Structure formats: structure tokens, C-alpha cells
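Case study B.
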Amino acid sequence: MVMTTSQFVRDRVGTLSPSPTLAVAKQAQALRRSGVDVVDFGPGEPDFDTPAHIRAAAVKALNDGFTHYTPSRGIPELLAAIAVTLEQFSGLKYDPATEIVVTPGAKQALLEAILTAVESGDEVILFDPSWVSYDAMVRLAGGTPVHVDLNRDFSLDPERLAAALTSRTRAMVIGSPGNPTGYMLTRDELRHLAGVCRRHDLLLISDEIYDRITYGTPPLSAAAIPDMQERTVTINGFSKAYAMTGWRLGYAAAPASFMNDMLKVQEHSVTTATSFAQVGGVAALSGPQEPIAEMVAEFAHRREIVVDGLSALPGVQCLPPDGAFYVFPDISGTGLTGTELAQRCLHQGVAITPGIGFGDAWDTHVRLSFATSEERILTGLERMAQALTTT
Ligand SMILES: Cc1ncc(COP(=O)(O)O)c(C=O)c1O
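Model:
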């Protein structure tokens, strides 16, 4: 019998869940194609253009013929600029020559770190609600994701964490500020996690991609907790802070003993990050930072509108996020699940993401991104109110 191509798909990939945001985006797209106006609360990217000086630097690099492979670790100028940024923001010293790797996006940095640290039989702790790609990456590495629910206010539950640890636990992945909650782990929570990592000899993979988009509380890097730099892989990038999602530029920082092995994954897969995008990255880190401040100020304004608007809806409770551009309101008081509410909203012309996409216990919630204009946010909130009053 001749195999069809689908029969070649093995479980490691075949059983991965599709992205919950993409599933809603597809439905919203189909509606739009049929002429329906849909307010999209789905996007995971800033609705701003990359600042002009960053674009200009990359265009110049292209025109100057900077179009070849770069060193696999990244260009020295960008590695140096990242080292300066890490020291400025977190007080952490990394050697740009051995302890940092530039990657095509933070996602690739996460995947490379997980492939380096995890293999068959290893368990990796994830905190729900969590970004779905962490789970997928652990599975791709052949490991087993172990989901630990956070409290309903998204704080850490030390007992639940303790109950999830086994002799096979190898690593933890944290995201702070988190997607989908915008919650930022407190210093005490990070200290607790650090203690667990030390006692159980675990690697901490700390995704800090939203750390420039915060609303008052300064971000705290996990590696800055005493003795944690030696067992932490810090992940960050340019997508969110500099509105550079399409550029695919991120990085990882960790002790050389880990990064040298992680670099092998990069060399045998993507080789390096795009040459001229890296030049844009240097301009982003070394150039004027005002565009970030302006973007964050606009997000802060929208955050108020979204939190107030959602809190005024019957049965909806919305905690203000510490960072990122998401809210993750509890909608259980409406008597609907997140999946049901998302479907109802879609019929009223609003796309939101059901909480089930971020953890089995979280269909009590929905995720809304406020990376869309104030006017569209207000229209979307009105439509959500209609979705909750019409049956
Ligand atoms: C929590 C989190 N980490 C990482 C990423 C990926 O960022 P990048 O565009 O740099 O790959 C995203 C993007 O949505 C994210 O939400």
C-alpha cells in the first residue's frame, strides 16, 4: 500500500495544538471576506510601525551590500549592544562573545534553548494560563510539559508547584510580563522560583519579551535574583518593544557553557539571524528610545479604557495587567464559557480568544489584545455588551 503524506506525520508534531489566536483569526477573516466588519482583539503584535531610524539603518545596510551570512552568533555590534542593554536594565553582565546568541525572533531563541535543555522523558514546568508555544516547543523536544495552574489573580501557588515536581523535572519556563495575563511575577515569587530551581537543580528559561511594555512597576529579570544567572536562560527580542515583529529578531543570554551548545542548534537550523535585520537591531538598541515611550504611553491609555469597559460588563471581572498589551478577564459570572462567549462575540463582529487556548482550567476567561486603535476598542466593547445581552 502506498502511504499518503499525512501518514508520515508522527505524533510529536501531529498532536500539537494549533495556535488559539490563529483559530479565531481564521474565523474572523472568513467573516470579513463575507463583508462583516470585525473588531479584532486577537493580534499579538503592536499596531505601530517600526520607528523610522531603525528602518533607515536596515535599508542602508541592504544598499551597502550587507546581504551575506553573518557570524552564526550574530554581528559583534549587535551582541555588544545587547550586552549593554542587559547591564543597563538588569545590572547583569554577559560576555557578548560567548554568552549571547542573536536569533530570528525570541520564539526561535526559546525553541533553541528548549531543544538544548530537554530530551525524551524530561518534564518541564509551565504556569497556566500560559502561551501555547511553550507547550508545543517542549513536545517538539520530546519532553513532557507539566502544567501548573496559577491562582485566579495569576499569582504563583507554591503548593501546586511543589506537587508538580518529580525526579524527572528538568526545567521551568516563565514569561513575565506574561501572555495572556500581562501579570508580572513579583520579586518574592521570583525568589521562590529561584529557591525551587536551586533545590531541585532546574534550569529556568525566562521569557522577558514584554519587559519594555509595563505600566508602573519596573520589570525584574529572573537572572538578577542572587545566584540565578548561572542557571537562567534569558530570552528577549525586538518584536514587541520596537514594533519589529516581521523582522524576526531576538536573542538569548546565558552562561557560555549553555550558549555554546545552543549555538549548535542555531548553526544546524537557521544558521543566523537575517543580516540587515541585525543592523536594524543595533539602531533600535543604540538609537533614540522615545518611540518606545510614546507607544507604551498609548498602550497605557488604552489599557484604562479596556479595563474600565470590560469591568462595566455584567459578569465580567478584569484585573489591570502589569505589562504587555493583553487583558485576561474572568467572564465566568456571565454564565458562559470563554469558548461560548468568543463565538457569541464573533456573531456581533468582535474577535476575542477563549481562555481554553492558554490552559485547560481557563475557559472561565478570554484574552483581548489592546493593540488596536482606541476607536476600534470602544466599538468592540459596545459589541461585546450586545453579545452579552442578546441570546
Ligand atoms: C510570550 C511570548 N514570547 C515570545 C513571543 C515571540 O516573539 P518573537 O516575535 O520575537 O518571536 C511572543 C509573541 O507573540 C510571545 O507572546
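The domain at 66-286 is CATH 3.40.640.10 (Aspartate Aminotransferase; domain 2). The remaining cases will be described in the next quarterly update.
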